[in-house]
Amino acid sequence: MSKAAELAALIGSGQAQIASNLIINGSNQIAQRATSSTSSGYQTVDRTRAEFSGASVTQSQQALTSGGPYDDGHRFFFRCANTSTSSATSAYLQINQEIEAQNVATSGWDATSSSSFITMSFWARSSLAGTYNIHLRTHDGTARSFSTTFTLVADTWKKVTATIPGNSGITVTNDNGIGLRCYIIVHYGTNYTSSGHTSDAWQTVDTADLTADFAQNWSNTASATFDMTGWKVEVGEVATAFEHEDFGTTLAKCQRYYYKVEHSYGSIEIGTGLETTTTQARIFVPFPVEMRSHPTAVETSSTAGNFDITHNDSVVISNAVPTFVNSNTTGASVFFAHASGGTQGQGCTGRLRLAGTYLAWSAEL
Question: In the Cβ-directed half-sphere of 98, how many Cα atoms lie within 13 Å?
């Protein structure tokens, strides 16, 4: 992969690529949080967010064993499955990633020029034949949006490609905030669509006119599924071959946005620190890569006894789950509580002691 291709936004597995210059490059191979979830948002595959309301949806990472994307080198895909139907006009399902503005600003795409293009490509499959939507939205300045359609035959993988020009109304600030929102729209109820919508053109964001009306209703189709993988956004008018990365490179990119340290085998030390009182230790956990911004909370498994601290060759089991103290982009401090036995100022180590125990931090957009 060229150095210019290494824009840090990651989707799905993943990464976000913009080709000779990449914004999105996602093969869905990294899933730090979980491999399945019934909740909306970032819950499974890294940098890939399934947002839904109305119908109940299970999002998951699935193994890929055959088909066009398999032949293209992909071994995982992202799936949304409908588990409870809804005919509500407010129902929706969208798969998206928000790209850092600095990755867009320095990609080589002149976002303000209609003669400068980015190309989005991905593999898609749905159990429900029909017409679906690609949707892009800018964040800085006056928000602008662009939509275009693609069609799918039921239960058949298709390589989807769309080329999008810039527009004089677009603003992209060179910072680590949101620059470009990239969406695959599986379903929008009529609250968000219009029969008179103008596709293939940028417009000021109108939440009642984001796409054209959907002919099919995925949210009201029992057990419907929608799958995607190999999501790529790149500078230029041609979709180039997907740039497969080794697992470690992709994981490190994902850890810029989310980092989870989890017990896998035996008790594991995750950081060192000091006893601040006789019943509390402050432990510093370093991050493996610098995060996009400093996290403001810690996620934990919910059982207090899954954690402990060690000092003077003795082990003290926690009587509460660890709590957030503070952080920067390179590490975070957490409090480990215990009933007694500490000596103020004494050095100690924080540990995960049982399977399923974890601490995690998010710097997602």
Answer: 18
249 membership: H or E segment, kind and range = helix 247-254
Please, are residues 242 and 312 in contact by the beta-carbon 8 Å criterion? Answer: no
Mean per-residue pLDDT over the chain, rounded: 92
Say if CB 12 and CB 46 are below 8 A apart.
yes
What is 231-273 written as a DSSP string?
A: EEEEESSS-PPP----HHHHHHHHTTTEEEEE--SS-EEEEEE
Instruction: Map tokens 């590490």 to a residue.
Output: 331
Cα distances from 212 to residues 209, 245, 294, in angstroms, run 7, 36, 39
Sheet holding 280-286, edge to edge: 314-317, 307-311, 347-352, 268-277, 280-286, 331-337, 323-327
CA distances from 164 to 16, 101, 114, 129, 190 (A): 16, 17, 9, 24, 25
- Encoding tokens for residue 175? 């910072």
Q: Residue 199 in contact with residue 212, Cβ under 8 Å?
A: yes
Count of helix runs (H) and strand runs (E) in the chain:
3, 25
Ordered alpha helix ranges (H), 1-137: 68-71, 101-105
The single-letter code of the amino acid at 315 is: V
Which amino acid type is present at position 17? Q
Among candidate residues 93, 65, 97, 95, the one with its CA nearest the CA of residue 78: 95
Sheet of 130-138, strand order:
49-53, 92-100, 178-188, 130-138, 144-152, 203-204
CA 173 – CA 150 distance, rounded (Å)? 30
The predicted-structure confidence for 290-346, as pLDDT tens digits, reads as follows 999 999 999 999 899 999 999 888 899 999 999 999 999 999 999 999 998 888 999
Task: Evaluate whether 134 touches 185 at the Cβ level (below 8 Å).
Answer: yes
Structure tokens at 131: 């017409």
Q: In whole angstroms, how far apart are CA 323 and each of 2, 108, 301, 308?
A: 41, 42, 11, 13
C-alpha separations of 196 from 29, 98, 190, 222 in Å: 39, 27, 12, 29
